[in-house]
């Protein structure tokens, strides 16, 4: 077998295994499987641009789960896809056309859509390539797009079904309007932004009187749309004006002064201007009191003819001119600073306008109740759990969903208007009007909200509304990975759609990951220039480095902070694994055969025994963490096991056994070491798939298997029985090695120089264990001699270190610098004394004693006892120092 190269070539491994996994169809499921099925859908990225580092985190977590489930014996299906993102894509394509001097409206709908499809093909292909470069175990035979023929048919089917059920309706309502994109937005597509502005107090003359009724407003440009003034019926200041009329300033329109309990007595003056066409609450008041609506805005955010002298002005410029006009007429009483939140478009950050418009809506309350019920019954779980309360709060306060958009890119609304006056819906393009049989009908010009296709993603992708084998096998999916900002926009709606059309929630677990931030905690954005391109990281450090770093840096429920240099951690991890494997390969002849033999039924060597115990403990812990969606905790357990236990300690300990031991002990160590390395590659594979697949094949571990992914997670456990206190004894051994190495460093001994050591114990069991470790201990600390015993007298000319139950001495040929040694021991005594004070304070705290479990109290008492023993030993050493 060829010896591994000195360095891990991640670029070659990336190319080789990406191609292998696809050509061998490793992640394409068997439709005739008898295995349990685990299916997951990719949250489809928008085709507006390439993937960012947040997408890489999302994909890495899903891939870890999929590879772990495959190793655990499941038939896995991880379905990829991309989203058409109607608003964002239309804006991007329009911007690109303007650079070429092409106007969207001049181009026309059909030609514009040709450009949009070309954009989709370009960026959709780029996204697919990025997924592949990251090593994602996706089923590329089922790649989907939200405007595929199958997806489009599902959208039409759902619209028609909901329309016929009375859950889709059309009406004039206040909606959120983006003047930049010139389209409506659902409530969930509007973000909030805090803003310092002003509150203007405007005088409205009372008709037939010299009185004024003063109203405070933050939007004076809408005054020309006022159709009433409302006051609270119990407000003594304005009670006498109820039933009279006020004159709207600047347009001189008389409007009624109404009594309305909705009015907040504490805001402004307690009088409210009612503008039904430009405020959702005012719209409701207008409906209640049968007020006229006066729309003063054009779709582009300029004022229209209803605004009189301000017609044609941009809305915020008009605001200034209206205030100026009020001042000139003596109708502005005062201005106050005002801090409030304004709605902005989630795509372009334009301030959104409440706008009266005829739109299509979905009645959400009937759909929300079942979605709330499955969560309350525990059929839908969030990880971390607190996101469930966010989900339920939104469903309990749900409003109807505006689903029409004034765009060209997207699913065109399947509603048709005939010249005979008939309005009808159809899944397929109709041939004639169902009422008059005419062909003179027109389709609605608007398209559906992007999320109207995305909410069907868990079942439209598997062939719904047809009854397919895919749908039977893969729905419901098992888990969903996404970000918190689309719990409303996507997660909740998918649950509603799944229950409505499939009779079953679309997934049982929802994992909400954090938002990747830069090293100082800022959100990554183009404007800040602090974004990280996943492909650049892959090219520089390798795909394993990208993946490992992302999961190491992402504690559950927290936002990871990263810079480009952060990925050195993942690269170092992959390199450490490669180097460890190379050492084992060079140390054990016929490594593959030794690994195939497995671990011995009986293990004599203490280091082998300890490592196998640590192995089984870690396998159980990582399995438990993965089952609970605690990926970061699982990764850190793996890191500790491989880096600290296996590479830093066990490999070093095994060198002694392989070189100095009897043939039997050497053979045992070879089998344990080879078997653990093979198991380690399987164990680490979901997290770092390229380097583990490369090593598994190169070291001959694959045997008849064509891929490490076909191995068994369940067979990782060795099942060895470990002495209850072995880990504690090995921990003391590791502390002793570190302390004795520190003594060597303090003595400034050359690395190759051996020196004698003395270890004095006050506990017989610990002494007996250390005596077993003497060959390894001597190697690790470069000892010429190691003397061990119970309560040994203090040697002369020594350097001292103290551990619980052990005094460690390095014997020097020259007299020790007593002053320096006294200073060192005094500092250690001060540190130990501080720890004793803390432990004593805790043990005298009545709250700790009453609330802490018995096991915790016992552990704290044991800790205090050990510290007091160390203090006595240090005091004794200081007493005898200098003789």
Structural features, described:
With 883 residues, the protein is an alpha/beta fold. It has five domains: 11-156 and 467-538, Rossmann fold (3-Layer(aba) Sandwich); 198-336, Isoleucyl-tRNA Synthetase, domain 2, CATH 3.90.740; 545-702, Isoleucyl-tRNA Synthetase, Domain 1; 723-816, 60s Ribosomal Protein L30, Chain: A (2-Layer Sandwich), CATH 3.30.1330; 817-883, Helix Hairpins (Orthogonal Bundle), CATH 1.10.287. It is built from 28 helices and 27 strands. The strands form nine sheets. Strands 6-5-14-16 form a four-stranded antiparallel beta sheet. Strand 22 (479-483), helix 14 and strand 23 (509-513) form a beta-alpha-beta unit.
Q: How many helices? A: 28
Gross geometry: elongated
Largest sheet: 4 strands, antiparallel
Give the helix proportion (percent range). 40-55%
Mean pLDDT: 93
CATH fold name of the largest domain: Rossmann fold
Structural class category: alpha/beta
CATH architecture of the largest domain: 3-Layer(aba) Sandwich
Strand order across the largest sheet: 6-5-14-16
Runs with pLDDT <50, length 5+?
none
- Gyration radius, in Å: 36 Å
Query: Strand portion, in percent?
Result: 15-25%
In the CATH scheme, the class of the largest domain would be: Alpha Beta
Q: Count every beta strand, where a strand is a DSSP E run of 2 or more residues.
A: 27
By CATH's scheme, which homologous superfamily of the largest domain applies?
HUPs
Question: How many domains make up the coordinates?
Answer: 5
Span between termini:
61 Å
